[in-house]
Design a protein that fits this description.
With 212 residues, the chain is an alpha+beta fold. 59% of the residues lie in helices and 10% in strands. Strand 1 and strand 2 (21-26) form a beta hairpin. The two termini are 20 Å apart.
């Protein structure tokens, strides 16, 4: 089996000191504004920005920033402990839940990853990045139909979400034996990322195998 890696948005969390606004900016996915009330506005095909507004203490904000630094340094145990503390202090925010889910995912604790991503989804049901992350977890736990639905939900919110598009194509190609779905989504992905030669090779391989 060929190596197909799932991909996710690398997020940048920043805090505006004045209004104490938690903004979740999705790198390579930043343009439209999304609020916790799920009023999502996709302004163009470049991307989206998730913005959450709340009042938090300086200590919570410092803990969040420290947790992200620890995770970037590969200190997952310490980073997870701080993120857990942040989610307890600011349970209304989905961003720390997402980061906690991803952190657990990286340690191989898929059950805790899924639990935290589901809690983030309860706070923001139309969050495309959460649907993409859950799709990866579902795929790794063998729930391929659920993974497909999750990727499709992400794309229903933001059709230009090429991370989810590629992951859906891989799922259809490798795990669902659905070449039509795979080619369709690989091609849609290449419209956003035309320089991905690996995906071009995968499309050729499918056509060679299926005569499409």
């Amino acid at each position: 089996m060929r190596a197909h890696d799932d991909i996710r948005c690398q997020r940048v969390i920043r805090f505006a000191l004045a209004a104490i606004v938690v903004a979740l900016a999705v790198a390579s996915c930043s343009t439209a504004q999304v609020t916790r009330t799920a009023r999502i506005e996709i302004q163009d095909e470049i991307g989206f920005t998730i913005t959450e507004k709340t009042r938090i203490s300086g200590k919570v904000r410092a803990d969040y920033e420290s947790a992200l630094v620890l995770l970037e340094q590969g200190q997952h145990e310490q980073g997870i402990e701080l993120l857990r503390r942040v989610t307890e202090e600011a349970p209304e925010l989905s961003a720390p839940r997402i980061d906690l889910g991803i952190a657990y995912h990286r340690t191989g604790d898929l059950e805790s990853a899924e639990s935290n991503l589901q809690k983030a989804l309860e706070l923001n049901p139309d969050h495309p990045a959460v649907h993409n992350e859950l799709g990866i977890v579902y795929r790794k736990t063998g729930r391929f139909a659920e993974a497909r639905k999750s990727y499709e939900k992400a794309l229903a919110v933001y059709p230009g979400f090429h991370f989810a598009r590629r992951n859906l194509a891989i799922l259809c190609d490798v795990y669902l034996a659905d070449p039509a779905c795979a080619i369709e989504n690989y091609q849609a992905y290449l419209q956003a990322v035309p320089g991905d030669r690996e995906v071009t090779i995968w499309i050729t391989d499918i056509r060679n195998r299926t005569g499409r």
